[in-house]
Design a protein that fits this description.
The chain is mainly alpha-helical and 311 residues long. Helices cover 49% and strands 3% of the residues. It has 15 helices and three strands. The protein has a three-stranded antiparallel sheet with strand order 1-2-3. The longest helix is centred in the N-terminal third of the chain and has 20 residues.
Length: 311
């Protein structure tokens, strides 16, 4: 047992305690881990646990790499990014179980030296799948189609395109994040995924005239600016609702694809000749090496406002 990295004392203790099932332990742990984070984080944990039903009734000390592999294979190629995050969450739960001495041995959900050699790279799978994007010349037609769509999902999609934000950011936009006097939207750090930064930070987004007009047309019923009009409770749309709104315009793209369209438009725009840094910052990407970024703390708000207003 020691050769396999298992402490016999811990193994004996875990067996004596009878241990808990994976689902029982998960539901005890992740709600505390989500404290102080967005509601979406809690929902993502819940979805991750639902996605691996074959692990639910297994005792913590019984779970092996083969069990984790079997659970992940069902979703690994279908939704690689989501599956990769699910694996990370399983790994964290297994680490917590070991720290609490509810199991012994190596982590069966570890990637390096373990599942990395058994599953295809999620990055390569996602790159192969890609994001549908339309030529930027078709974006005016898409926006016209959205304008004639009466649903809240279309309004959410419009503002998402006008701010070139990610779908999880725009779906979760809250009234308290908006400053109409300054004409800005402060996206909290916990909702952000900023390339080039190790730790997420709040992201200040300049709002164009069109974006403000749409936002102010929404009734202020509760905290979310764009609540689902298909749910009984006040809650944000599911991510697929925004893709559905785009598809109804007959233009083939995704929300991420619209970000690609914006970047291509900015690169080709001869009239304004936007700097690369401005366009990348609009997409919440920080570019440059560590030394450059250590000196760069400007929000470039006016330059970004010009790009988003023109776009």
């Amino acid at each position: 047992m020691k050769r396999e990295g298992i402490d016999p004392r811990v193994k004996k203790r875990a067996t004596a305690q009878g241990s808990k099932t994976f689902k029982e332990f998960a539901e005890e742990q992740y709600p505390d881990w989500c404290q102080g984070l967005s509601e979406e984080e809690l929902k993502q944990w819940q979805r991750s646990i639902r996605d691996v039903p074959s692990l639910h009734d297994k005792k913590l000390q019984e779970i092996t790499t083969e069990h984790v592999l079997e659970a992940l294979k069902a979703i690994w190629t279908v939704k690689p990014v989501t599956a990769s995050r699910t694996r990370q969450r399983i790994e964290r739960l297994m680490d917590a179980a070991k720290a609490l001495r509810l199991r012994a041995g190596e982590n069966p959900a570890a990637w390096r030296g373990n599942l990395k050699h058994l599953l295809p790279s999620p990055r390569k799978l996602n790159r192969k799948k890609g994001h549908r994007s339309a030529p930027y010349t078709k974006m005016p037609g898409m926006m016209t189609g959205l304008r004639y769509d009466p649903g809240n999902a279309a309004r959410c999609t419009e503002v998402g395109i006008l701010t070139v934000s990610r779908r999880q950011e725009i779906r979760l936009m809250e009234w308290t994040e908006l400053d109409f006097e300054a004409r800005t939207w402060m996206v909290p750090a916990e909702k952000m995924k900023i390339k080039g930064e190790l730790e997420p930070k709040p992201h200040l987004v300049p709002l164009s005239d069109q974006a403000i007009e749409i936002i102010q047309s929404m009734p202020r019923t509760d905290k979310y600016v764009f609540p689902s009009d298909h749910a009984e409770e006040h809650q944000p749309f599911r991510a697929n609702a925004l893709v559905g709104a785009i598809e109804r315009t007959a233009v083939k793209s995704t929300m991420h694809g619209c970000r690609t369209s914006f970047r291509n438009w900015g690169a080709d725009n001869n009239e304004h000749n936007f700097r690369r840094e401005v366009l990348e910052f609009c997409l919440s990407h920080r570019i440059g090496d560590e030394a450059e970024l250590s000196y760069w703390d400007s929000e470039m708000i006016n330059r970004r406002r010009e790009a988003l207003q023109v776009g």
